[in-house]
Amino acid sequence: MAERHLIVAEIKRALRECQLTYVQVASKLQLSLASVKRLFATGDLSLERVESICELLGLTLKDILDRAHLRNPPTKQLSLPQEQELVTDTKLLFIAWLVLNRTPIEQIVRQYRFTEADVQRHLIRLDRLKVIELQPGNRVRLLISRHFSWRAGGPVQQFIHERLLGEFFASSFSGPLDEIFFHGCAMSDDTQEQLRSVLHKAARECMQIVERERRPREMRHGAAFVLALRRWKYSGFSQFDRE
Q: For a surface tag, which of 50, 129, 132, 186 has the fewest beta carbons within 10 Å of its beta carbon?
């Protein structure tokens, strides 16, 4: 798995920083030098041996993982080919959306018309797409940032515009928990940039509230919120413009 290679690479880096040699590692693990070199070359280090090497380094496994992830930060955006593959298969896109929202596999199987084999097959595709890292027991590690966003004007955004937004806005928003606010006016680029910063902050705060959700999943229901800003003038008003 990619996680194991990150750990091995970071351990090698830490050994160099501490000026420790494979000879010292071999002594710690009670192995021959050739065996240690082979373990590092293949990345086939057991958890017990990793912890022993961490002890030699004066670090914990968590320290190694934190260092590795800082050096290899999660991506904030998928590539065009990655997004294109997602939108070609609605099931794949839906399971990706569920996984990005940290929905447990057993919950997906229980709540939707997917067998465990169906979910696993799509998780394998997401692993190959580098959206997730599929770990033993169908555990998932996201390879994308908490501040992830779809490509502007990309395949997924186009899918959202064509399939989702029309349906979303075809509502009176009159429910007890519904809310919609729309305001348009003339503004300068500087003011629009200030509003853009406010929306970015609001989006982060909204996601933090969602991530802090601790109620049982049976008590949750589908919902969505939209934050948007762009230069725009209603086409129906254009007839009143002076030449």
A: 186
Residue 103 has pLDDT above 50, yes or no: yes
Q: Please state, as a whole number, how many other Cβ atoms lie within 10 Å of the Cβ of residue 76.
A: 11
pLDDT tens digits along 116-135: 999 999 999 999 998 998 88
> Is the distance from CB of 68 to CB of 6 less than 8 angstroms?
yes
pLDDT band per the 50, 70, 90 thresholds, residue 73:
low
Give start and end residues of each alpha helix (H) in the chain: 2-17, 22-29, 33-42, 47-57, 61-71, 80-87, 90-100, 105-111, 116-128, 155-159, 166-169, 189-211
pLDDT at 25 exceeding the cut of 90:
yes
- For 231, the 3-state DSSP assignment is coil
The enclosing H or E element of 141 equals strand 139-142
Tokens standing for 161?
């515009």
Report the topology of domain 2-71. 434 Repressor (Amino-terminal Domain) (1.10.260)
